[in-house]
């Protein structure tokens, strides 16, 4: 056999070995990595103003830490302060230990030591306290399925489950309502 014949055999063997090696390496492809997803973005010590569809302020948020979940685009917040405007120019203030904002920014959830106060102007100062509350800024509604206490000058009302219209400051309890008159001291 000539040297060209031997060279052809060697080249065919090399091609078969490299093809087989490539096929084996493809079969051993690394698996998908599982573990905690990293946030799309993180904000620290910030103030954020969210606008509604008409371009008006829907709510303002101040907090030391915000992280967006890349899987569902929701937002987790540490010790948030939400400022929700009302039509008379005032702002409701809502604070809690943690907060959550839906991906479409139309639902805000507050959890842990929730305290919500009505705007200063208006003459009907309200303080709402509970453990969990949902705010719907588009409709100016706040609601909770938990035990809620509403304090205002001269009275204290407590009940299980509540909804308040932030525009009119009208509230409605679902059940187990107790009211106590607390006269002002002069």
UniProtKB/TrEMBL annotation:
Alphabetized GO MF terms: glycolipid transfer activity; lipopolysaccharide transmembrane transporter activity
InterPro entries named among the record's database cross-references: LipoPS_assembly_LptC-rel (IPR010664), LPS_export_LptC (IPR052363), LptC (IPR026265)
Annotated keywords: Cell inner membrane, Cell membrane, Membrane, Transmembrane, Transmembrane helix
Compartment(s): Cell inner membrane
Membrane topology: Single-pass membrane protein
Transmembrane segments annotated in the record for this chain: none
Gene Ontology terms: biological process: Gram-negative-bacterium-type cell outer membrane assembly
An annotated GO cellular component: plasma membrane
Keyword Ribosomal protein included in the entry's annotation: no
Superkingdom of source: Bacteria
Entry-linked Pfam families: LptC
Family named by the database record: Belongs to the LptC family.
NCBIfam families to which the protein is assigned, alphabetical: LptC_YrbK
SUBUNIT field: Component of the lipopolysaccharide transport and assembly complex. Interacts with LptA and the LptBFG transporter complex.
Role: Involved in the assembly of lipopolysaccharide (LPS). Required for the translocation of LPS from the inner membrane to the outer membrane. Facilitates the transfer of LPS from the inner membrane to the periplasmic protein LptA. Could be a docking site for LptA.
Name of the protein described by the UniProt record: Lipopolysaccharide export system protein LptC
Annotated organism of origin: Luteimonas yindakuii
Lineage: Bacteria, Pseudomonadati, Pseudomonadota, Gammaproteobacteria, Lysobacterales
């Amino acid at each position: 056999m000539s040297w060209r014949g031997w060279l052809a055999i060697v080249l065919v063997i090399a091609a078969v070995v490299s093809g087989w090696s490539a096929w084996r390496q493809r079969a051993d492809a690394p698996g998908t990595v599982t573990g905690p997803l990293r946030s799309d973005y993180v904000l620290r010590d910030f103030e954020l103003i969210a606008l509604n569809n008409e371009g008006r302020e829907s709510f303002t948020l101040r907090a030391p830490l915000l992280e967006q979940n890349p899987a569902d685009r929701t937002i987790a917040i540490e010790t948030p302060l939400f400022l929700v405007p009302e039509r008379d120019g005032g702002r409701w203030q809502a604070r809690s230990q943690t907060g959550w904002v839906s991906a479409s920014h139309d639902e805000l959830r507050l959890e842990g030591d929730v305290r919500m106060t009505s705007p200063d102007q208006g003459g009907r100062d309200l303080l709402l306290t509970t453990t969990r509350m949902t705010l719907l800024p588009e409709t100016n509604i706040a609601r909770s399925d938990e035990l809620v206490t509403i304090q205002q000058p001269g009275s204290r009302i407590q009940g299980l489950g509540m909804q308040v219209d932030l525009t009119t400051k009208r509230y409605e309890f679902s059940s187990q309502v107790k009211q106590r008159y607390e006269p002002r001291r002069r």
